[in-house]
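Example record

The entry below shows one chain as it appears in the dataset: sequence first, then structure tokens.
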Amino acid sequence: GPAQLVPWFSPASKDLVLVDDGALGVGFAVSNRSLRLMSLYDLAAGVEFLANPSGLWSLSCRTEGTAPVNVLASDLEAVLAVSERSGGKEIRLTWTRRPTSGSPLAFTATSTLALSGGRLSMDFAVGSLAGGGLTEVVFPDLAFGRLGESDADDVLVLPERSGKLVHTPLRKGLSFGNHPYPSGGVSMQFGALYDPEVGLYFAAEDPVGGLKNFTLGCERDAIRHAVRWSIPNYGAPGNGFTLSGQAVLERFRGDCFDAAQR
């Protein structure tokens, strides 16, 4: 797969936090009070799913008297805490945006990641904004790489219509951008990337089927997976956001049928 982003089988840097459940490993880089997701690693297959580090999310908002503001998670002060839970691990992430002389915008965002049985489930919430109104949340925002030594046998499951298989997606310049769910063009909330040896299921497991937009596209030798969520009270001062369901990443072995059974 892609060059291993973190040293899973050698002594870790003090700036790395590595958490695993015996099947799936999750690695974060923590430095200068900020954090980035560095690794999503299949421990049994020895395959790194991520092509690039990720801040996990971004958002946009309106503020009084200024142009719209875009905020990247990787630019914010963040705190990470790991604890044991029944059958696995729990990772609690908290980000804080503080007001500055140039912007009154302030908020706290949180995500709890549950890791168990090779499955990573993530919730996400943005507290009530001070000095602005939320207009967009993108969560998660990830870049997947090739599986194994070659991408010649990689297959991507697109959530297009009733599902579409794209063979060797990295070679085809795939572009599936900002498509709304639910709609005739997107009938399911999951996708997958797999080869004969290993696979990754990714989904917005939203039981209420709320409005969201899926992006899957090739960018710089990586497959970007991003979900844009509809915001209640769009742009209203002091609004916030809570994910209706969970974003899920799960290792599996098989094909599109097996991915659909997650």
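Notes for this example: The CA atoms of residues 84 and 90 lie 6 Å apart. Helices lie at 256-260.
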